[in-house]
Amino acid sequence: MTNGPQPSVRGAASLELGDPALTARVAEGLQAVEALLAERLNVGEDFIIEKVNHLAFAGGKRFRPTIALLCASFGPRPDAEDVIKAATLTEMVHLATLYHDDVMDEADRRRGVASANARWDNSVAILAGDILLAQSSRLMSEIDTVTVAHFADTFQTLVTGQMRETIGAEGGNPVEHYLRVVEEKTGVLIASAAYLGALHAGAEQDVVESCRRLGAAIGVVFQIVDDIIDIFSAPDQSGKTPGTDLKEGVFTLPVLYALEEDSDAGQELRSMLTGPLETDAEVARAIELIGRTRGRERALDTVRGYLADAERELDALPDVPASAALRQLATFTVERVG
């Protein structure tokens, strides 16, 4: 299960945000984020700069900064310097988790290029992630102690989710375990982006908290949808070979629901999925069996539950163009799988 898959919004205008002024403001904000990233990640020794820039500008979608900039619309100072800094530090933290995740997952590729651990080694990849965390901490300190304290909680939740995933369900309910991991690993950082964008734009506290809950729900929606796409979509749609998670022994929500099913397909699947699958033929057979269960439909039902949570928060937020844009983002995500 990868950390934080998102539709391409790097240059939010590609999403047709529905309001020219909003589109222009978010696009300008993203340019400012890019500039600040480049400024902060191009300091220090050359051997450090090379490593931290390896993934930073390798085609990332800048989804978290976009969420921060959209939620800043709910406050009176959407263009504040601290909004840009907050948006940028969420991307830095996300980048750091990618370096660390690739080491833990022994990944070979990331964002269309060799992963840092594959190009150099695990130690270099871990240290590059640590540099990114150092730079993000510096940005936090330039904003205020509230942001520092907030990210202390965010870091703890991120690490808890990663450790929870590593340890496994330990006899607990696998579906509940999966959802907690997704909420902690993916949802929390998108929630932080939404929270900090609204906070540093000067939004009312109830609006700030609503944005946090909205971001958390959207993050879970995106992760589950991406996990569904991993199994059921053609490579030209998903950008990767179907069943990648299965082959690595990672069982995502549609698989877990399929494994629960009391049917011939569910029974055969349970006999197959006792660990990582060895061959492409085994992966193809497992995908076929999952398709014969209600795993996909049940996963989509769960997605719709989180989407309803997002809609509820959006209904409570001010009726401004950013609200409609955020609603469109969440709906677009679900439409990727029908």
Topology of this protein?
Elements: H1 20-40, H2 46-56, H3 63-71, H4 81-105, E1 109-110, E2 113-114, H5 116-119, H6 122-143, H7 145-167, H8 174-200, H9 205-232, H10 235-238, H11 244-247, H12 253-260, H13 264-272, H14 280-291, H15 295-316, H16 321-335
Antiparallel strand pairs: 1-2
Helix pairs in contact: 1-3, 1-4, 3-4, 3-8, 4-6, 4-8, 6-7, 7-8, 8-9, 9-15, 12-15, 13-14, 15-16
Overview features:
338 residues, mainly alpha, Farnesyl Diphosphate Synthase, two-stranded antiparallel ribbon, 16 helices, globular, disordered N terminus
Structure notes:
- By secondary structure, the chain is mostly helical.
- The chain has helices spanning 20-40, 46-56, 63-71, 81-105, 116-119, 122-143, 145-167, 174-200, 205-232, 235-238, 244-247, 253-260, 264-272, 280-291, 295-316, 321-335, and strands at 109-110, 113-114.
- A two-stranded antiparallel ribbon has the order 1-2.
- It is globular and about 60 Å long.
- Mean pLDDT is 85; it is low at 1-13.
